[in-house]
Structure formats: structure tokens, C-alpha cells
Amino acid sequence: MFRIDKPLVAACAVAALALSGCSSVEEQSAAEAGSAAQATSAEAKAAQQVVEEATKAVESFEAPGDAVDGVDQLAGKTVYFVPATYQVPVFQAVASALENALGAADVQVEVCDGKANPANMASCIQQGIDAEAAAIITGSIPTDLASVAFESAQKAGIPVVNTMTAPAGPGDPAQYAYLTPDYVALQSRSASWVIADSDAAANVLYIQVTDTPATTIWAEQGALATYERDCPDCEVTVIKANTGQLDKLPSLVTSELTKNPDIDYVQTEVDFLVQPTIDGLQTANATSVKIASMDGTLAALQQLEGGQLVSSEVGFNADALAWYAADQAVRMMAGQPSNTEVAFPYQRMFTAENIDDLDLTPEAEKTGAWYGSTDYQDGFLELWGLAG
Prior knowledge:
By secondary structure, this protein is α/β, with parallel strands linked by helices. It has helices spanning 14-20, 25-54, 89-103, 118-130, 147-155, 183-197, 213-230, 249-259, 274-283, 298-305, 318-333, 362-367, 376-383, and strands spanning 78-83, 108-111, 135-139, 160-163, 176-179, 203-209, 235-241, 265-268, 290-295, 310-316, 347-350.
């Protein structure tokens, strides 16, 4: 819990009386309360500026690198996609988009589920090595979580694209690439929406995912750091859960709301926590609580549109992320270095102010149209020499 109470001044100092003409303790207390209100308003206003910037859509595609030669020679090769856990809908969306993107070069995609277990993740990477994959793309698997497997891929000369962990890291660009949405920033923006909406006085239940070290970093450096820095009068309670404990989450939420009925906001770290959270809120009869979440899945956005507890969503274009990851893989497979420190731009916040502008259908979700221009697909095909 982060809370800083601003005490009222008990009496005017003699010098203050002389300079300001303060005539009573009551007048000084009122002035102090006015200052506090202004400070809170300033905090909420600053948070609202973050929200307004975050709701903007991407206008057009900007190539992340030079054209790639020799892509037409990759036909028939196979790329392994290893997500940390295939239960998470965003990984399923990325897998489907990878098949579309790499399929344009006649490259096949094999998916191996890491099952939220480091041993399984390492085993999947090894499967790709044994199958002599042309490249391996991982999802939310930090290198230190399966270090031996990553080293084995490097020794085998198999390029690796590490997505959804860090924007950059160690490794030869001819064999290694990094690509990620700015999860820390997305978590921070989600917290900023709560701060703005609550006039910097929220009582927040934050639900954190503990599956990987990456999700811990997103929570601590993103949302929780934002509340502590930008909202001293917010109260924050944290529940920690992993994908193997989702059946317990509704009762944990109900218990917390029963102990603390003043909670008026819940921030879920990712969208697959939303429905168990709603179940817990409904059991606690806390149907006026507002939920802020991250991923931008169709189900969560439909709940936002319908006013069903979800009030804010931050997400990234999973289709675009897959094309960017495919580009990194294609470059290394074609014998060229990857692009280091690629800034992934297709990230956006959705609220009641812009949700009605979206076509909330599976087809629109797949195209990535919610985030702005979708000309990145044609842009990458042109970079790969496959346009037209």
C-alpha cells in the first residue's frame, strides 16, 4: 500500500501571521486543505495528459530497417514459435499472425507450448534445435529462464528472436534479436488512467502475474512505481497469481473486497485475469468497481464497450508484433543482421472516449486496425522483395 497523508498545520507561526494576515487556526487549515486539493488536481491533470497521448492511433508504417535480399530462397524452411504459455490469448494471436507473415515467404511455423514452466520452455527450444529449425521465436521467455537451451540454439547456429521480454540484450545480431512492446510503459499508462479517473485518490487492487521475471518487472517498474511516484494519496493492495492458480483468483478477489470494501479500482496486469476478477467482484457485490487492464483482447474491449466493469484497456497490435518478429527472423535466416533496439510503435489505450470508433469483431482484431494504419503488412512484403 502506498499512502502519504498530508497533515494539516495546527497553528500559524508568528512570522506567517505577520506576513499573511492569518487570523485563526481554522483559516490556516482551510488554506492548507486548498493547497492539497490543488496538488491532487495537478496530479490528476498530469495523468490525464498521459492518457490523452496514449489513446492516439498510429498514422503510418515506418520501416524498421533496410530491404532484405534472398527472402525468396527461404521457401520450405520451418520456424519454431515457443510462447511462455499458449493459454494466453495474445500468444495464440501472435502464432496465427506469424503463420500469415512467414507464410508469405513460404516458411512454415511450428508452435510448442512452454506451459508456464521453465523445463517445458527449454524442452520446446531444444525441439526446435533437434528439428533443425531455420529460426526460433520465443514469447515472454527471458534468456536466464532457459539459459542452457538458448546457448544450445546459438551453438547450433539457429537464429533466435526473443519477443515480449526486453527491447535489447546481449548476442550477435547475426544470430539474436529482441522485440517487445514497452510493457513497463503500458502498465504505467494503465495506472495513469486510474489516477486521472479517480482524481488521484484511488483505492486500487492490483493483480500481478508471477509466471516469469518479466511480468514482475512490468508490475513493479510500471504500474506500482507509477502509483508510488504520481499518486501519493492512492492506496494500493497487491494480489499475486500465476496461470496455474486462476481458479483461486475469484475467491482471493472476493476476500480482499470483503476486507476492504473501499476498493474502487482494480488493475489487472493482463487480460486473462479479467474474467476471474469479475467473478470475484460479483461475488463480493462490488459491481461499481472499475477495471483497468492490459492486452487489448477482443473480449475485454467488448466488455469495455458494454460498460461491464472494464473501463480502460491498454494493448498492442499482436498482428503487427508478429510481422516485426517475422522481419527479424527473415533477416537472420537470409544471412543478414537483425535490427537492434527496434521501437515497436503499435500500442494504444482504449477508454469510453474512443471505444465506439472500433469495429469489435474477430476480423478487425486480426487485422490490427484498432491501433491505426495496417499498411505494415504491405510494407514488410516490400522490404522482403515479395510485394506485388
